[in-house]
Design a protein that fits this description.
0% of the residues lie in helices and 39% in strands. With 103 residues, it is mostly beta strands. It has no helices and eight strands. The N and C termini lie far apart (35 Å). The strands form three sheets. It has a four-stranded antiparallel sheet, with no helix packed on it. A two-stranded antiparallel ribbon has the order 1-2.
Length: 103
């Protein structure tokens, strides 16, 4: 459940985070969120792991309908930021931990 506007809006997302650390890319700290009145997005997964490839879920209209997309060729995995400049255009930044490099 995603809650925002001081708890006035609650949205059920089609994703459960794994806080045990057993599934890479699925903890709260390894997942990126974008929430606005027009659009919501969650980026999750582990770009180089087999357990959960990197994906993004996007919803309009306060999460009434979610669309999921695998992000092929993603190279980062720990830090994820997602945002939108317009209702139809956005960007994703995925980063490695300091001192590591992707191959």
């Amino acid at each position: 459940m995603i809650s925002y506007q001081n708890g006035a809006v609650n949205v059920k997302a089609p994703l459960n985070l794994v806080t045990t650390g057993k599934v890479m890319g699925m903890s709260k700290d390894e997942t990126g969120f974008y929430i606005s009145k027009d659009k919501m997005a969650i980026v999750y997964g582990f770009a180089k792991g087999a357990s959960k490839p990197m994906h993004v879920l996007i919803a309009d209209k306060k999460g009434k309908k979610w669309n999921g997309h695998e992000i092929k060729g993603a190279k980062g995995f720990e830090t994820k930021f997602i945002g939108f400049t317009t209702k139809k255009e956005g960007g994703l930044l995925v980063a490695l931990p300091t001192g590591e490099e992707a191959h």
